[in-house]
Amino acid sequence: MPGFRALVSAALLTLAPGIALAQSGPNGSDSAQLSSSSLGPGDLILVKIWREPDLSDTVQVDNAGLAVFPKLGPIKVTDIRPDSLERLLVHDYSRYLQNPSIRVTVLRRITTWGAVMRPGAYPVDLTMTITDALALAGGATPEGKSGKVELRRGSVRRVVDLSGEIQRVGDLSLRSGDQLVVPQRSWVSRNPGLIMAAIGTVTSVVWLVAR
After folding, report:
1. Buried b (16+ CB within 10 A) or exposed e, 82-103
2. Residue 161 burial (CB < 10 Å; 0-12/13-18/19+)?
3. Are residues 114 and 186 in the same domain?
4. Is residue 202 part of a domain?
5. By the 8 A CB rule, do 189 and 50 touch?
6. What is the CATH classification number for the domain harbouring 58?
7. Distance (Å, rounded) from C-alpha 210 to C-alpha 142?
């Protein structure tokens, strides 16, 4: 009955204003902008020098691209890959130490928000899985959409399917300042009982009116 279908449609539109959501996907140039493996401002550098606890430290790259290392002082580190920085530090510390053994670990400072338990900024190791990175923020809430996360960098948006090949943070080539957003499930998927109840109510009303 046309009148019945129109009445049901009107009821659903009234009860579920959040059903229609605008979505946009990245193009190829956006994806290219998200790729980076070099050090940048905001990165944390964990320096571990074997048998030298006084020289082992965690330093942060400032907005000028400088990191201040124990005994060495400030060093320009932007646009240097982590493995290249490790070789540079071995060379520079060789002036003070004999055959230094140095390990460098880089952490990106990422903001995680959306449908997560504890939104905020967290230092993320690029070797971590994306799931472990989200766990730093307490993981997704019951309203969170599982299996997907959105990477934001400025105006660039990229939706990542966690069931695909991308499993680790390093696969996303994150930079400090990037955002990982766990999307919320649609109003419909979060309220199936309410929708069914609304349809039942509308059906009952129409049936009574049509008698």
Report:
1. beebbebbbebbeeebeebebe
2. exposed
3. yes
4. no
5. no
6. 3.30.1950.10
7. 41
Classify strands 179-182 and 73-76 as parallel, antiparallel or unpaired: unpaired
pTM of the model: 0.69
State the pairing for strand pair 66-69/179-182: unpaired
Contacts of 176 (CB under 8 A, 6+ apart): 40, 41, 42, 43, 61, 108, 109, 110
**In sequence order, which residues have a C-beta less than 8 Å from that of residue 178 and are 6 or more positions away?**
108, 110, 111, 151, 152, 153
What are the average pLDDT values for consecutive 10-residue runs of the chain, which has 211 residues?
40 35 38 60 96 96 96 94 94 96 94 95 91 92 86 91 80 90 70 54 59 64
Query: By C-alpha distance, which of 160, 159, 121, 157 is closest to 137?
Result: 121
